[in-house]
Amino acid sequence: MKIGVYYFSGTGNSLYVAKGITAKTGGTLIPIVSIMGKDDIKIDSEVIGIVFPVYYGELPVVIKRFAQQLVDIGQKYIFAVCTFGGSAGYSLKLLKRIIQARGGTLSATYRVHMPQNSFPKPFENHTRLFSTWEKKQLGQIINNTYNRKKGEFFKHVFLAPIFLLADHTVNFMKPTYRKSFIKLSNASADLNTNDLIHLNDTSFSVTERCNRCGICVKVCPVNNIEIVDKKPVWQHRCENCLACYNWCPTRAIRGGIAAKGFYYHHPDIKAAEMMKQRSIQQG
Which one of 103, 182, 224, 251 has the largest count of C-beta atoms within 10 Å of its C-beta? Predict the structure, then answer.
């Protein structure tokens, strides 16, 4: 069984999960951004795994584009794993709808609680979250994938209603998110939400702590940063993944979409792995 695990990651949580699935299945790990730019995306694997973070209770814009370009997926077994710090929101439902429109079926969906990467959560136990993933959820995904099981899978059955309630609440927050995007970007309220998200990078700046190392340019998965006059300049196609902010070694970047003074990236993921995300080609 040929398995392709396609991922997008900014601060390493989704890459960590995708690596775990790939290691256990013997599949191929493929960064989604490395195959974008094509009109159609045809995947040879019998099984397709899609791993991504949840932003604002939604799919990242790049994941929407990826799913909308998939072709010939009618006979594929497709599963999706979203990583989240608060809620899965509408992300999995939207992905399911897009895949159906492309002639496929999203057979299995999973929600993996990972540490929040944009603001502090004082009572969040990172060690427990990582352990739950490795000892419980990962095995469930592997078993279900080999047996082609279908459904929405919650490892913690008793917590499922709480997660579902949180998902529902996030949908009511969409107008609030949109207002914040307009304020951050100082853009026209007539723009669609995806364009406003891309323009949120207008709120980024660098302090005198910037040592011009260029790491922000290299870790940005969507090639959104250029060095101009020895300083990073954002190009307004931002995914709001916070890779540049959280991987900056001198913590020189400031921006309205991240809590001031809070930083996070997955402890088992290295910056060098993030830098490869744009360059690795489909195997």
Answer: 224
